Amino acid sequence: MLTTLLIPVRLIINFTFAAVTTGLIALLVIIVGIPKLLLPFPPVQRVISTLANGVFRVWGYAMSLLFRLTQPVRWHIEGDSQLHRDRWYMIIINHLSWVDIPLVMHLACRNMPMPRFFLKQELIWLPLIGLGCWTLDMPFMKRYSREFLAKHPHLKGKDIETTQKSCQKFRHIPTTVINFCEGTRFTPEKHQHKNSPYQHLLPPKAGGTAFTLQTMGEQFDAILDITIVYPPSKNSVVWDLLTGQLRDIYVNVETLPMQQDLIGDYFQDAAFKERFQTWLNGRWERKDKLIGETLTAIANRSK
After folding, report:
1. Which single residue of 31, 68, 187, 250 could bond 76 by disulfide (Cβ 3.0 to 4.6 Å)?
2. DSSP code of 59?
3. Running DSSP on this structure, what letter comes out for residue 186?
4. What is the mean pLDDT of the chain?
5. Residue 150: its pLDDT value, please?
């Protein structure tokens, strides 16, 4: 009964902390980044980006604190951990919840360069957050349906153009580029609609990942294949986190060395496209198996 009574209190504390810290950090990032508009000189902008990146890391520590503010979340992290802040990484990761973002921040804030997310275009209008992400050179992607592109063919490839411009900016400061390869959060409805060949994942979209590697592959020190598993719950992961009911998080990190054969022209070279899709689908098969094994182990422990 006492735990039930505490849930509203935990919700208020966690939500307020997340909202206030996010708003304040976004405001600080914007203030630091104002000179980018006034002084459009590459050396000056690189210095400003470095300062804004330092402020962004503070938000990473705040999100890390969120996981233990009102309840001790147990982290089960397996795999490689010998990472460095002064290098470049690309992460391929499954997408389950909005909690994935503070989770990545928790992983990154100590021993990785700060991450850059590919965001939906609509998020740029979020108060403070949208402008803060723009200051940090987060790429905003505008997705079009096949039907829309058929009527407006001149817009085809705009997302690739956005990716290219963003990746060019990432060359000047150590960065972790995040690719949620499924393109959207996993739900049973989406899983059924896409007729996914995987039990716990949506099919990965290879184009954006391949193009990022084509643009920055020579600069990346490694690819980090990260797999996230949350224990089954009748609630959403966001609700469980904010109400102090998220007790365990399972993360597997595999560091893959950069291979030259992963760099190529995905959109013009048919042989490379097929080879890259085979590689990414193979990673997803491994990830799907790992998720299944983790969920089975969780179920056995709860018996």
Report:
1. 250
2. H
3. -
4. 86
5. 56
Give the chain's length: 303
Q: Over the stretch 65-87, which tens digit does the pLDDT of each residue have?
A: 999 998 889 999 998 767 888 89
Q: What is the pLDDT of residue 170?
A: 78
Q: Comparing C-alpha atoms, which of 135, 117, 119 is closest to residue 35?
A: 135
As given in the structure block, the two tokens for residue 252 are 């597997």
Is the entire prediction scored with pTM above 0.85? yes
Distance CA 115, CA 60 (A): 10
Q: Name the packing angle between helices 42-66 and 2-33 (round to 10°).
A: 170
Nearest Cα to Cα of residue 243 among 129, 73, 59 = 73
Class of domain 2-301: alpha beta
Tens of pLDDT, residues 31-41? 988 887 777 77
Helix (H, G, I), strand (E, B), or coil: what is residue 217?
coil
156 Cβ neighbours under 8 A, 6+ residues apart: 144, 149
Report the distance separating Cα 7 and Cα 71, nearest Å: 11
Rounded Cα–Cα distance for residues 74 and 94 (Å): 20
Pairing of strands 89-93, 222-229: parallel
> What gap in Å lies between CA 140 and CA 135, rounded to an integer?
12
Q: What gap in Å lies between CA 208 and CA 232, rounded to an integer?
A: 30
Provide the CA 255 distance to its chain's centre, in angstroms: 16
Q: Hey, what are 125's tokens?
A: 């209008």
Strand, coil or helix: 126: coil
Highest mean pLDDT among 20-24, 163-167, 209-213, 267-271: 20-24
How wide is the angle at C-alpha 29 spanned by C-alphas 23 and 34, nearest 5°?
Answer: 125
